[in-house]
Amino acid sequence: MPDIPSLCALSTAHCVALCALLIPANLVSTAFTLGLSLMRYPTEQVHRAAVLSLLCALAMILHVLSWIVLGVVMAPTYILLVLAGICLGLNVWAVSYPANLQRRLAWIGGWGKLSATVR
Known about the structure:
The chain is built from six helices and no strands. It is 85% helix and 0% strand. It is elongated and about 45 Å long. The protein starts with a helix and ends with a helix. Helix 1 (4-13) crosses helix 3, helix 2 (15-38) packs antiparallel against helix 3 and helix 4 (75-96) packs across helix 5 (98-109). It has 119 residues and is mainly α. It has one domain. Keywords: Membrane, Transmembrane, Transmembrane helix. The chain crosses the membrane at residues 46-70, 77-95.
């Protein structure tokens, strides 16, 4: 079982490296999940991509929570927490309601029925 103080120390010692890895990983993996969902790939592939992205988002949340436990609360703390929360929410949405997400993404992208009627 991992030792919580050791993990917090690891998080503080390697913050720049963790953020340099986790921020792009969150953005790319969430975009990949949304792209697979938009292109109507099989749900198994969307679920695999979403699980990978969920792991990245949870790692970011744990990293940020370690900083909050240590008392380091600044703007980047909240920004990274919101980023991880948005990525987490989008991936849960992709797994839970894939048809709804596909419709919303198509509407946002202008590929929905509303854009066809507007001239």
